[in-house]
Amino acid sequence: MEKKEAYKDFIERLMLLISKQPDLITTTLSNIFTMRLIGNKTHGDLAEIAIPEFVNQYMYDFKSLHVGKDLYRSKTKEEDITIINELTKTTFPVSLKAYGAGPLQLSTDKNNLMFPKLEQYKTPIEGDMIKQVWGDPVFSQFEDINVLALIYDEKKMKCNILVFNSGRAQSAVTRIDSIVKGRGRKHPIYRFFDTDGGYVCEVRYGGAAANALQRGFWTNTKSGFKYFDSITNGWIDYSHNLILVKLFSHALVSSSAGHTSALEKIKEDIAVLKKKAGLSK
Predict the structure, then answer these.
(1) Domain residue spans in the chain?
(2) pTM of the full structure
(3) End-to-end C-alpha distance for the chain, whole angstroms
(4) Residue 221 three-state SS
(5) Which residues pair with 201 in a beta bridge?
(6) Core vs surface per residue 174-189: b (16+ CB within 10 A) or e
(7) Distance (Å, rounded) from C-alpha 49 to C-alpha 67?
(8) How far is residue 200's CA from residue 191's CA, in Å, rounded to a whole number?
(9) Which residues contact residue 15 at a Cβ distance below 8 angstroms, ignoring those fewer than 6 apart?
């Protein structure tokens, strides 16, 4: 099985599980977004270990591994977790994003190749030039984007798991414009539009004066929503788990012996959840 097909199969299986057992993902997402009570970015890091554990506990045909920050510089693709199909043994990377509704980074451009490449074209880029852009090796990673976006609206206490449909987005682009000015804009961007003039995605400036971590493809989960698929079938309510915050605070000042005892109790609870959901082996 090809990696892209394996990724699509995984997404379909995940959607099926969530449709049948919505309480499992609601509990998990509530716990993840509760971590924002500890720190504004804490939830993103913990999502990278929570989602693999969700896969390992509730999706028997799949195994998931957290790649880890130490491998960042050697990564050839956007990757936070690795998914393994236990039946076909196909392995593929997935990039996890935990963002508020709005701008969403799809991929980075560590070598700053995308923006300079687009500068070689006369704008607006249209017609056959669009095909030339997509055919350039610099943009080949776009069709391989495997982004699992955990999106939250903190005011409304709602969340959504969105998957960017790169194939749909790529085929929809009919014009690329250079955008120099705009509300609060410090650096220029290249914005991709569909045939209706709708927003698809953008490439951000990555020169010396810009934040290098922001280079690459970006989109927007509001204005580019039609190029996403919702794994949770739309927005779902989540709630804060204050007991989890207390558990973390106590765990940080207790010994590994206490952690071992607590872990056994948590495993027992997961077993109960599995049995209740009909997922016990």
Answers:
(1) 3-240
(2) 0.90
(3) 26
(4) coil
(5) 192
(6) bbbeeeeeeeeeeebb
(7) 9
(8) 8
(9) 231, 233
Q: Identify the residue whose tokens are 């940080």.
A: 252
Element holding 185 (H helix, E strand): none
Using an 8 Å Cβ cutoff, are 46 and 60 in contact?
Answer: no
Indicate if the alpha-carbon torsion angle 9, 141, 197, 218 is positive or negative.
positive
User: What torsion, rounded to 10 degrees, do the Cα atoms 275, 276, 278, 279 define?
Assistant: -50
Query: Which pair of tokens denotes residue 55?
Result: 């896969």
* Strand intervals (E) in the chain: 62-66, 81-85, 91-100, 103-105, 125-126, 147-153, 158-164, 173-179, 189-194, 199-204, 216-220, 228-230, 236-237
pLDDT digits (tens, 9 = 90+) for 96-151: 999 999 999 998 888 889 999 999 999 999 999 999 999 999 998 898 899 999 99
Tokens of 260: 């071992």
Do the beta carbons of residue 222 and residue 101 sit within 8 Å? yes
The C-alpha atoms of residue 267 and residue 148 are separated, in whole angstroms, by: 26
3-state secondary structure 140-151: HHHHHCCEEEEE
Q: CB–CB of 190/115 below 8 Å?
A: yes
Q: What percent of the chain has pLDDT over 70?
A: 91
Q: How confident is the model over 75-84, as a mean pLDDT? A: 76
Residue 23 phi, psi (nearest 5): -65, -30
Token pair listed for 238: 């989540």
Torsion sign over Cα 140, 143, 145, 150: positive
